[in-house]
Structure formats: structure tokens, C-alpha cells
Specification:
The chain is built from five helices and eight strands, in the order αααααββββββββ. By secondary structure, it is of the alpha+beta class. The chain has two domains: 57 residues; 68 residues.
Amino acid sequence: MRRLLPVFLLALAVFALPAAAVDAPDVRTMMTPEEFSAAGLGKLSPAEIEALNRWVIRYTAKDAPIMREHNEVVREEIKRVDAAVLKTRIAGEFRGWYGDTVFRLENGQTWRQRLPGKWFHKADSPEVELSKNMMGYWVLRVVGEDRSVGVIRVD
């Protein structure tokens, strides 16, 4: 029992970390620098930014799901965003996919292959397009090649 005490205390410390230890939403990283500037948020004090961040957390948890379901303007924006094609590049060397490939993109996003399949293709930072198919699932297509694969966003 005495040998388990340190393990228990370590587990308690890890699970009792304050919420700030986890990455909380922050408008400074959620928005592009252009959006942040256009909204005039650069004029806010650090305390005002933190108040805005707390509001974003509350809004996301409480109001956003209701808005997504019941507000026609929000639903139209969701349709527009879902219909858009995201164009970017694979970050660095690309060797195709092999069943559980993780795709790191130049825009900072990370996607993982969600469907089985293999395709070997060597390229340096090839351009890719991400879009939703008619079933609502994301597909990554290598521009200039007649190949695509189902993906799911990881980060």
C-alpha cells in the first residue's frame, strides 16, 4: 500500500491541474492577425482580452450549439464553409498514403487518413485540396494527380 501512495499522489496531481494548464481558447490565436486588427482588438488591455476569452468559452459551451441549430444566418454560413474547398500544401516531403497516414499541412492543420488504401507517390510539398464529398466526409486530393483519400481532421 505504501508503494502505491506516490503513484496515487502523482495521478491526483495530474488530474487536478487547473484548467489554465490546458490550452484554453484565446482570440489572439483563434483569429488571423488581420481579423484581430480589423476587429480593433489590439486596443484592448490584457485584462480585457482575458474577459473576451472567458466570454468565448461560455458562448462556445452554451450559445453556439443553439445558434448552429436555430439561426438561419449561422446555418447558411455553415453550408458556405462546408462547401468551400481548402487549398494548401503538404508540409515537406510527401510519400503518398499507406492506411493510417497523418498529413501535416503548411496551414498548420493535421489530418489523418480515415479510409484504407495505399498510394505511393513521392513529391516535395505538393498542393492539396480538402473538400467534403456528397456524404459530408472530408476528402484530401493531390492537385495534378487523379488520386484522393478520405481524411479526418486531427488538429
